[in-house]
Amino acid sequence: MSDLVYVSGHKNPDTDSVCAAISYSYLLNKTKKYNAVPVRLGEISRETEYILKRFNKDIPMLLKSVKQKVEDLDYDKVTVFSKELTLKTAWSLMKATNLKSAPVMDDQGKLLGLLSSTNIIQGYMDDWDSDILKKAHTPIENVVDTLAAKALYLNENLRRIQGTVHIVSMTTNGAMNYIEENDVAVIGGDRKEMIRHLADTKVGLIILTGQFDIDEEDLSYCRERGVSVISTPYNTFVTSQQIIQSIPVEYVMQKGGLTVFSTDDTVESLREVMSKTRYRSYPVVDLNGKVVGTISRYALINGDRKKIIQVDHNERGQAVDGIEEAEILEVIDHHRIADFQTVGPVYYRAEPLGCTCTIITKMFDEEGVDIPADIAGLMLGAIISDSLLFRSPTCTPYDKKTAYRLAKIAGVDPVEFGMDMFKAGTSLVGKSVEEIFNQDYKKFNIGDAKVGVAQVNTMDIEGFASYKKDMLAYMEKVCEENEFDFAMLLLTDVINATSEVFVAGDKPEYVEKAFNCHLVDSQANLPGVVSRKKQVVPAITNAIG
Fold first, then answer.
1. Distance of CA 145 to the CA centre of its chain
2. What is the C-alpha to C-alpha distance for residues 449 and 173, in angstroms, rounded to an integer?
3. Is residue 368 a contact partner of residue 27, using CB atoms and an 8 Å limit?
């Protein structure tokens, strides 16, 4: 995860934003500078989709946030206990790995509880009695393992301890008064008569201490009566201590009121919860609810921030959510420098060109990397889109020269390709007003004012008439939710170099002042206005003053 670098355009991505992310990722990977992955911050436009399909490129994955998550932290990913693990083994593992607690999982890997050293110690200090193995539903395998015993005979029906544990030190007659069927009898020494009596009583398990063995005749006698027999190397005193440690951890673990984190939880929420609780560590589960480890406060110190390279933007409001928690490595842009700041130094490249992909083409040349036909096609599409087929005032001679060079590499005619691209991208058929407005929408803070400006390139402005009423209602809602002074939608005719503007909000007069126009029913024609960056935002900035 720490080696991965996301190359991200802005929110509500346009063609340059997406194609720049893909193209620059290719260059970074080709030069082995970073392990770069292109991402998008929203749904792509029909125009962008057309270009990607035309050159057989996949849509970049959607990145919703770069906030640090639990999965980015150095949590303990291995120490997870099964519910039937013995206390003895659990205690040994916890001591060996210096753990104070560990999650316990069920047979499906889901979280069942939390075992801590406190649970174990409290268990020993509690008033445990000779029925503790029965109460804990202790598996016979636990007893054999804990006592390092040799199984002389195990009844296949004996799966869990079902009786009371006895240390047999009295006479046979004395034992008859309290040892019952299914009980566990711990015997030290050669007690042939007692073994026969216990077999007749049909105890569940006979434990021979001191590695004592019995002859085949007595063992057969026990086998015939279904009485299991094991032999441990421990003496009777140690056996009486060790057998309690065969209890499964499920019996002593904390089962309720657990504070659990998901790998998808943010570090911000993790820190908040940890500040209100005082556990040494917390269970971590994946998105399927399966236990993957534990996390402690110490992990908060060592988390790796996600690494980002921003293309075609620098303003925080247009960046991916959580950008303040990420490490920005580079910025490649052709816009004004706004509220951009970083904790450390970054590689920042901004040039007064019409398209980010024009800059990236220069970077291919500087690195001596050949541009493949598909990448050339993407960057050509980005330049044509941003320059409105070389009609935008933001388009420089260098942009146009670069586009024709890329067209030659891609094997297409730039004008013909551009017209096909715009036709595919500007169709409004089947779109909702929300989709139209948010296709290329940006927020701006200008002086004390907050505004929203959306722009849609279309070859069919007249066809928008049926959308107008619903669009203005939606824009009023956008203004209210974002506390905008006004919001405007530009329908830009890329062929005739004109825009139709629609305005909502409390201060439409700013738009009238900016463009020296008169809004009729919240609408006006703006001849020659095609660039949001060079014509719209500067004019509004001057009008707000």
1. 40
2. 98
3. no
